[in-house]
């Protein structure tokens, strides 16, 4: 079974982007760790990143069309703004797990609302790279 791992805006900058908040792992480092763990769970990872909201919408639809077992979604700042992502998650039956490196609730008030979290199966936030691994562990049990 395949797990889609979809990453939104600015996550291509991981490694150098505000490392005190997001850690020093790059997105490739995270992909490598996910692939290592996925192998032991007999799962395949399809990891993608885009700075464009519509790409993320299309990929959510594709996850369902390809019968992905689950989607791990770090929508970045679109988490807090995107009705389109909210509707896309609602519109597919594929379970979506919201993932964040940081814990948005401990940060600026504009990060306290998640339009993704309102329709996700669950949320894992605040554990850096480990947030992705924990989300994969959850998805493996679906
Ligand atoms: C983030 C949290 C968001 O608020 C922020 O806009 C990001 C990263 C996280 O992984 O902690 O881009 O999704």
UniProtKB/TrEMBL annotation:
The keyword Nucleotide-binding does not apply. Keywords: Amino-acid biosynthesis, Aromatic amino acid biosynthesis, Lyase. Its EC number is 4.2.1.10. SUPFAM superfamilies: Type II 3-dehydroquinate dehydratase. PROSITE patterns: DEHYDROQUINASE_II. InterPro entries: DHquinase_II, DHquinase_II_CS, DHquinase_II_sf. The keyword Amino-acid biosynthesis applies. Substrate binds at residues 74, 80, 87, 101-102, 111. The record marks 17 as: Transition state stabilizer. Pathway: Metabolic intermediate biosynthesis; chorismate biosynthesis; chorismate from D-erythrose 4-phosphate and phosphoenolpyruvate: step 3/7. The active site is at 22 (proton acceptor), 100 (proton donor). It comes from the Bacteria. It catalyses: 3-dehydroquinate = 3-dehydroshikimate + H2O. GO terms for molecular function: 3-dehydroquinate dehydratase activity. One of its GO terms (biological process) is chorismate biosynthetic process. NCBIfam families: aroQ, PRK05395.1-2, PRK05395.1-3, PRK05395.1-4. Belongs to the type-II 3-dehydroquinase family. HAMAP family: AroQ (MF_00169). Catalyzes a trans-dehydration via an enolate intermediate. Homododecamer. This is 3-dehydroquinate dehydratase. It comes from Sphingomonas oligophenolica.
């Amino acid at each position: 079974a395949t797990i889609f791992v979809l990453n939104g805006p600015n996550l291509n900058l991981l490694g150098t982007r505000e490392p005190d908040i997001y850690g020093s792992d790059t997105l490739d480092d995270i992909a490598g760790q996910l692939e290592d763990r996925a192998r032991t769970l007999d799962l395949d990872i399809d990891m993608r990143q885009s700075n464009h909201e519509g790409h993320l919408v299309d990929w959510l639809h594709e996850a369902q069309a390809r019968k992905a077992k689950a989607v791990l979604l770090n929508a970045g700042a679109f988490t807090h703004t995107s009705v389109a992502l909210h509707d896309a998650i609602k519109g597919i039956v594929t379970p979506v797990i919201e993932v964040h490196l940081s814990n948005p609730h401990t940060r600026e008030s504009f990060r306290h609302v998640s339009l993704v979290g309102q329709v996700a199966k669950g949320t894992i936030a605040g554990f850096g790279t480990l947030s992705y691994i924990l989300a994969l562990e959850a998805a493996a049990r679906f």
